Description:
By secondary structure, the protein is an alpha/beta fold. It is 21% helix and 32% strand. α1 links the parallel β2 and β3. The longest helix has 11 residues. 41% of the residues are buried.
Amino acid sequence: MNRLIVDVSEPITLVGGGELGSGDLEEALALAPVLVAADGGAAAALAAGHVPSAVIGDFDSLAEDARAQLPPGNLFPVAEQDSTDFDKALRSVAAPVVLAVGFLGARVDHQLAAFNTLVQGHDTPCVLIGGTEVIFHLTHAVELPAEAGEVISLFPMQAVTGRSDGLEWPIDGLQMSPMGRIGTSNRALGPVRLMPEGPGLLAIVPRRLLPDVMAAVRRG
């Protein structure tokens, strides 16, 4: 059973130890003011002048100099090695939504692991913030104020179907699969409505839509 470490009514910014773009952390904190770090992400938070309220992970990536700057009461080790620190952190928090920075870019294997974590069925919805896009798991119908011509990509992590309004190439009736048909490089005709029929579908949309995505996915 997972131990709940952070339980808050405000959105959480979760920082990882991967590539952190300029302004990523500050933009996330403006929308999600509670800061939590996954393992080595604590060093990035400290370098930006922020002390995470909790650091969660197996601590194999947390350098001693960074650890020494953190209050002992803010450190929450999770020793098991069967999951990533991203997964450990998401399992251990409860909030309306999590905005995750520092999990995309750099190593491809880490990015793939992050996508896998997104679709694991955590109680708190999560949005990954990339350099130009944001990525989230479509678990229910969402409406987004996209503009004509903007790229709206859908990537299946397992066999899944869905419906759409406002896409140049509608997904209605398509059987999508990671080993078959995928839905990348679709384009909006204007505002879009995306309606998954089952779990496993990732949506990849322009980063400017982050506040709208956050509102669409957040837990009531």
